[in-house]
Amino acid sequence: MGFWGRLLAVALLILSAAADPNDEQCLTHLSESLEDPLNNLQNWTKATFANPCQGFTSFLQGATCNNGRIYKLSLPNLALKGTISPFLSNCTNLQALDLSSNQLSGPIPPDLQYLVNLAVLNLSSNRLSGPIPQQLALCAYLNVIDLHDNQLSGPIPQQLGLLVRLSVFDVSNNKLSGPIPSSLGNRSGNLPRFNASSYEGNKGLYGYPLPPMKSKGLSVLAIVGIGLGSGFVSLVLSFTAVCIWLRVTEKKLANDEGKISQLMPDY
Ligand SMILES: *[C@@H]1O[C@H](CO)[C@@H](O)[C@H](O)[C@H]1NC(C)=O
Ligand SMILES: *[C@@H]1O[C@H](CO)[C@@H](O)[C@H](O)[C@H]1NC(C)=O
Ligand SMILES: *[C@@H]1O[C@H](CO)[C@@H](O)[C@H](O)[C@H]1NC(C)=O
Ligand SMILES: *[C@@H]1O[C@H](CO)[C@@H](O)[C@H](O)[C@H]1NC(C)=O
Ligand SMILES: *[C@@H]1O[C@H](CO)[C@@H](O)[C@H](O)[C@H]1NC(C)=O
Description:
Bound molecules: 2-acetamido-2-deoxy-beta-D-glucopyranose
Number of strands: 15
Helix content: 25-40%
Distance between the termini: 147 Å
CATH class of the largest domain: Alpha Beta
Protein name: Non-specific serine/threonine protein kinase
Family: Belongs to the RLP family.
Number of domains: 2
Subcellular location: Cell membrane
Membrane topology: Single-pass type I membrane protein
Enzyme class: transferase
Structural class: alpha/beta
């Protein structure tokens, strides 16, 4: 074999070179944490996890390969249940993760922070709960964070405002609470801005760009009203109590006086 032949052989070997052990771990754990009741995930078997990619060809449904590594996982609308494995972070070349419109539950693993190439994260329309991990701010290339229609709770981490490439951010229809960090609600300079539609449908969330809560203004009035009302009622009650007490003691005094005067010898 000549020089070029050997070079070609080496190049082919590198290209087809098997399976990155990290991708294998990632896929193995992910398939263990997901439930696939409708058997939608074709080729999601141990054998394929050991060799999911050949160059740019993928043998796994929903996976896209780049240079022998998994770089996109797109599994929307497949009736998947179960949870998102933290070992997903072992797919270190992953640029896009779309698990939207399934029935996934449990938390968003903070381990996703190790996906340093991640640009698109779409976990919308699931049943995910727990907090939005502030560690997502470490995925510096994130363009898209779409988490709408889940059951996420707690505050929106202000650290996410550090993501300068963020152009889509949607956390509407969750159970988030607290103030919208101004690093996201009122972005400065020429950073893309997000309007109220990104935040609506979270009962406890407030601040710009959400409209000021009118019901909150009313309830403040209501609280003042209740306070004044109950103050008046307790005033009347205590006044009545004092009156009754005065009367009783007066009577008792009068009685006692009577008793005393009876005991007193007459002069
Ligand atoms: C499953 O794998 C076979 C070969 O291993 C491949 O021909 C087929 O296209 C794969 N199916 C999907 C959905 O990727
Ligand atoms: C794979 O991911 C898990 C969970 O984040 C982590 O503990 C482990 O260190 C990772 N493995 C490698 C080889 O990076
Ligand atoms: C996320 O996925 C949903 C449903 O699959 C889709 O409608 C939505 O447009 C996606 N979000 C983005 C920002 O592409
Ligand atoms: C938004 O930020 C600008 C300065 O960057 C400030 O002047 C403005 O008052 C802020 N708006 C709100 C609603 O917080
Ligand atoms: C809010 O932003 C979304 C997405 O960026 C856009 O589709 C929508 O038209 C905007 N709504 C308003 C009232 O500007």
